[in-house]
Amino acid sequence: MSYIPHTDSDRAAMLPEIGVETVGDLFLDVPESVRYPELKLPDPLSEMEILRELRALSEENADLDHHACFLGAGAYNHFVPSVVGHIIGRSEFYTAYTPYQPEISQGTLQAIFEYQSMVCALTGMEVANASHYDGATSLAEAALMSVSVSRGKRRKIIVSPTVHPEYRTTLRTYTRGSDLAVVGDDDLTYELDDLKALLDDDTACLIIQNPDFFGQLEKANELDQLAEAVHTAGALLVVNTDPISLGLFTPPGEYGADIVVGEGQALGNPLNFGGPYLGLFACREDYMRKMPGRLIGETVDTEWRRGFVLTLSTREQHIRRERATSNICTNQALCALAAGAYLAAMGKSGLRKVAELCYHKAHYAAERIRQIPGFSLPLRGGDKGGSKPFFKEFVVRCPRPPGEINEALLERGIIGGYDLGQVLSPLSLGQRTRDLSKGRDFPQLEDCMLFCVTEMNTRAEIDRLVAALEEVAP
Amino acid sequence: MKIEKDCRYAETHEWVRVEGDLATAGITDYAQSQLSDVVYVELPEVGDAFDKGEVFAIVESVKTAADCYMPIGGEITEINEELSGSPEIVNEAAFGKGWFIQFTPSDLSELDDLMTPEEYQDHVAKEEGGG
User: Fold this and answer.
1) Domain holding B90: CATH number?
2) Closest Cα in chain A to B44
3) What ipTM describes this predicted complex?
4) Are A437 and A375 in contact (CB under 8 A)?
């Protein structure tokens, strides 16, 4: 069948209506020279030849099979057990689509239900949805949900400056055009106490990231006090987390989080050059009717056999239109399936082991780098003392611009860290309200890099990184 | 289908009953029969004020979710807490135990815009007939 709905006679009727004679007239604004450019395509090739050519092209990429990677900042290089690929590659599962019809989709629905259950166990929450597009979308949805929990009465969103900068940009994209105020990150040095001081009876939620963008963990007693202050103000505590860290550290549900979000890529999904990823989203049962997204529930059929269905779908836009909890009611079914398969394969002890390996290797790397003349760890101790613990990422102050160091590392087969002072693209700049003149993620960390070490980094790789940094230091 | 004599009705199938200074409102027996099994009612908070025609509640059934519109303006003095645990009482007794809100009407003359029981009977008959 044809997917183009307009017939020739439809078009003939529409053209005079809008005052043009031909379809070509609609493109007159495009300069003639580029309107119908001659495509200089090479001669056709056979399938065998084209595969050879594409392979050669793809080998131009710096991939993780041939490089040591110390880059994180929201997307992480973790091991994906081969069972994950086998499971999601089964033809019964291989779709990104969340099925509506329970009578033909029990396997997929059960898999998503199990994914949701494991996300709940991991985050310490009572309800989890079937996932969002990515961690940033989940975080923005959590902010909107908090406003809706207050029945739209509270209009202020407090976000910590240590939340991923791109997530904060996404949050602003979501709230643009509304009268919602996003505050808290206009001063990038704000700590939990400063954020607490912004709480009032107009605050819908306070959003933190733990471990934060710099890899640091907030102290347990401070988190408890923060949660108490947030709840006393009648607001919700939203925590953006790294699911791998939860193998080792306290789940946000235990320190008072009301909504937990996070990037789920680290769970069984490869880096994929930036996507597709999946957004984790979980909350307390009290708020489940305000939760966005797909939700799979367990039920029984007419013969009392266990089954799985889409549930609470009256929250969704196909029923409630503009009053839906969100206008994104789809999910990342295949990525969520991979995350579920990963969690099931690793189990509690496996996930803990991964987290421990990350923690110990990162600490080994940090200590070695700290000892290189010219390099320092600005957030770790020093004269301030009392620095926070960190998980798998840490900030390094460099004796040369991070961009130059990264180039030198790449020549040595190493993908370096995230340049915290890098100048942002004009596109993302346009959406920021703060210090546009500087145009940097963290102007106060201009000569700093964020390194990430996971279980994938061997000790030999870390030693190679240290040797390379020693070499490139002036 | 039940239609109570002592109520006034909105075209959107809410009823309101005024007794002294207080009014009580809910959805009609016809409305609950159209919705089928009610599973959740989202009610406002005591102290909230609504104009006539504003959405004051959302009723969710196994089939759909519907907004409920304030039949006459007023400030909420009480909500039916029982609905949170037993939403099915809306199906069982839409005009009785299944009430939604109690409120202080801001302008009783707004009642004049609402339908009498007889008019509502015709209204429902027309909706049924017109499909």
Assistant:
1) 2.40.50.100
2) A151
3) 0.80
4) no
Q: Do A151 and B40 lie within an 8 Å CB cutoff? A: no
Structural domains in chain B (count) = 1
Nearest CA in chain B to A286: B84
The H or E element containing residue A10 is helix A8-18
In this predicted structure, the answer to whether residue B51 has a pLDDT above a threshold of 70 is: yes
* Positive or negative torsion for Cα B33, B35, B40, B44: negative
Domain A82-340, classified CATH 3.40.50.720, yes or no: no
pTM for the full model?
0.87
Q: Is residue B19 part of a domain?
A: yes
CATH fold for domain A68-79+348-472: Aspartate Aminotransferase, domain 1 (3.90.1150)
Least confident of A255-264, A307-316, A436-445, B29-38: A436-445
Query: Which residues lie below 8 Å from residue B36, measured CB to CB, with a gap of 6+?
Result: B61, B62, B63, B91
In chain A, residues under CATH classification 3.90.1150.10 are: 68-79+348-472
Distance from CA of B118 to the nearest CA of A (A): 32
What is the extent of the structural domain holding B29?
8-106
Q: Is residue B21 part of a domain?
A: yes
Which residues of chain B lie closer than 8 angstroms to A314, CB-CB?
60-61, 64-65
Dist. CA B64–CA B34, nearest whole Å: 10
CA–CA distance, A98 with A96 (Å, rounded to integer): 7
Report yes or no on B59 lying in a domain.
yes
Give per-residue pLDDT as tens, A172-222. 999 999 999 999 998 888 899 999 999 999 999 999 999 999 999 999 899
Verify whether the Cβ–Cβ distance B67 to A314 is below 8 Å. Answer: no
- Substitution target in B60, B64, B68 with the highest count of A β-carbons within 10 Å is B60
Say which amino acid occupies A110: Q
pLDDT of residue B9: 97
pLDDT confidence of residue A379: 86
Residue B1 belongs to a domain: no
